[in-house]
């Protein structure tokens, strides 16, 4: 979309804003809005009144706030309801965050109710209707050039907070009200198109991931598709036999049904205090992957590791000799099987790991629960053929996922750039709206 610039511009006297259209102004937010910080917590009390609480995540993940969007139900005092109740046209922003670039993420209140209250870690910005529209203010907070003022003003090291005074000191490009409305209309329309396209692409990614999972599950339980089997020199239509496993139908007749303890062996990792770690080329492997290197190996590679806690059901393949870093993970002895095939098989079986993990108060995998699980294991040559096939086919799917993900990033960048251009007067959207 190519949109014209305004006919004439003037200096805004704000360094980051540069020139603005001749009939616009640049003013501090405090001249056009009131603002205050909420201190309403989530803890209910019998002495307080029921409310629906707008929390940090409700603002962070949504452009618009409505009472019926599944908000937390808790309680607040009469004074808190009066001071922090939300009205239509209010803009709620994130005031605190673990990341500086998540400061001042906005959401516009488009519907309200007497029990709709703003929660902790948020600030309310209420426009003065004679000068500023909430719909336009929402977009100014979403514009890079405006939003960066709040990010710079936030202080902290491990957690960042925006001082209340910095909210009002921020500069806004301020067109006449009629033009604010036109800009808001234009951006509502155009961002809706972009958001719809992004949603479709995210759905596509989910479908691709589902296809990937189904492909792995089918191949590690039934063997290669006929064409791939024929190309690998295998029987494209093998006879099947009952597996004897509740969740698995027939399997190729030459596959063995084994308990996992005969196909692989889960062994606890080895603690290695930080003071004992010596620089070297051997990877130190945690349940989240390779974390460092060491001079000495404990386990022979290739191998597979998985977390006993936290990363249950996620498997990491290590090609070389390694040190399984601590006892919170399992190092998996492959028992001579193809490591790539076993990783795919274990990934397919991951729901059973998760099912066993919920038996205790603190979810964790016990190898005594895992070892009796039965699985179908093909001969070694067929394992390698299956692994080769899955590497090729999942790489194609992963490439498509990456490509669609990149497209989503580009659309989101375009969305932000379009908002920034419109609210800073770099493009004139009046004719497009008309």
Write the layout of secondary structure elements.
Elements: E1 9-11, E2 19-21, E3 25-28, E4 33-37, E5 49-54, H1 56-60, E6 64-65, E7 72-76, H2 78-84, E8 91-94, E9 96-97, E10 106-109, E11 116-118, E12 122-127, H3 134-142, H4 144-153, E13 155-156, E14 160-161, H5 164-169, E15 171-174, H6 177-222, H7 226-231, E16 240-241, E17 251-252, E18 256-259, H8 260-263, E19 265-268, E20 282-286, E21 289-294, E22 303-307, E23 315-318, E24 323-324, E25 329-333, H9 339-357, H10 367-370, E26 374-377, H11 380-423, H12 430-433
Unreliable stretches covering 5 or more consecutive residues: none
Q: Please, what is the CATH homologous superfamily of the largest domain?
A: DNA methylase specificity domains
Residue fraction in strands: 15-25%
- What distance separates the N and C termini? 16 Å
CATH topology of the largest domain: Adenine-n6-DNA-methyltransferase TaqI, Chain A, domain 2
Largest sheet: 5 strands, mixed
Oligomeric composition of the shown chains: single chain
The whole-angstrom Rg is 29 Å
User: What shape does the CA trace take?
Assistant: elongated
Mean of all residue-level pLDDT scores: 92
The class by helix and strand makeup works out as alpha+beta
Work out the count of structural domains.
3
For the largest sheet, list the strands in their spatial order.
4-12-8-10-6
């Amino acid at each position: 979309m190519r949109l014209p610039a305004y006919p004439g511009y003037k200096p805004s006297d704000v360094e980051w804003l540069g020139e603005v259209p001749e009939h616009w102004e640049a003013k501090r937010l405090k001249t056009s809005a009131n603002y205050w910080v909420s201190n309403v917590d989530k803890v209910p009390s019998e002495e307080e009144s029921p409310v629906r609480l707008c929390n940090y995540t409700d603002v962070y993940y949504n452009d618009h706030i409505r009472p019926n969007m599944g908000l937390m139900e808790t309680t607040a005092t009469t004074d808190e309801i009066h001071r922090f109740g939300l009205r239509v046209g209010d803009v709620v922003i994130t005031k605190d965050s673990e990341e500086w670039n998540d400061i001042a993420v906005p959401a516009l209140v488009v519907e309200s109710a007497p029990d709709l209250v703003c929660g902790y870690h948020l600030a309310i910005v209420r426009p003065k209707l004679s000068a500023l529209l909430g719909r336009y203010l929402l977009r100014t907070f979403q514009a890079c050039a405006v939003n960066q003022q709040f990010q710079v003003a936030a202080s902290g090291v491990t957690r960042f907070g925006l001082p209340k005074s910095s909210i009002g000191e921020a500069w806004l490009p301020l067109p006449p009200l009629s033009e604010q409305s036109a800009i808001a209309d234009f951006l509502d329309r155009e961002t809706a198109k972009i958001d719809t396209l992004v949603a479709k692409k995210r759905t596509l990614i989910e479908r691709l991931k589902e296809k990937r999972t189904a492909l792995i599950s089918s191949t590690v339980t039934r063997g290669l598709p006929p064409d791939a089997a024929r190309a690998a020199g295998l029987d494209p239509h093998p006879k099947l036999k009952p597996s004897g496993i509740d969740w698995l139908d027939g399997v190729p007749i030459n596959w063995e049904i084994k308990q996992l303890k005969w196909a692989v062996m889960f062994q606890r990792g080895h603690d290695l205090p930080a003071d004992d770690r010596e620089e070297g080329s051997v990877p130190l492997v945690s349940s989240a992957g390779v974390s460092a290197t060491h001079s000495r190996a404990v386990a022979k590679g290739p191998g597979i590791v998985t977390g006993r806690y936290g990363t249950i059901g996620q498997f990491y393949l290590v090609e070389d000799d390694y040190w399984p870093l601590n006892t919170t993970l399992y190092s998996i002895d492959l028992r001579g099987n193809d490591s790539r095939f076993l990783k795919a098989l274990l990934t397919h079986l991951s729901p059973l790991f998760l099912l066993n993990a919920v038996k205790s108060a603190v979810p964790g995998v016990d190898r005594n629960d895992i070892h009796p699980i039965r699985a179908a294991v093909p001969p070694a040559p067929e394992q390698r053929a299956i692994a080769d096939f899955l590497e090729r086919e999942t790489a194609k799917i992963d490439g498509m996922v990456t490509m669609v993900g990149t497209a989503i990033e580009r659309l989101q960048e375009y969305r932000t750039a379009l908002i920034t251009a419109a609210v800073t007067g770099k493009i004139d959207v009046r004719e497009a709206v008309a």
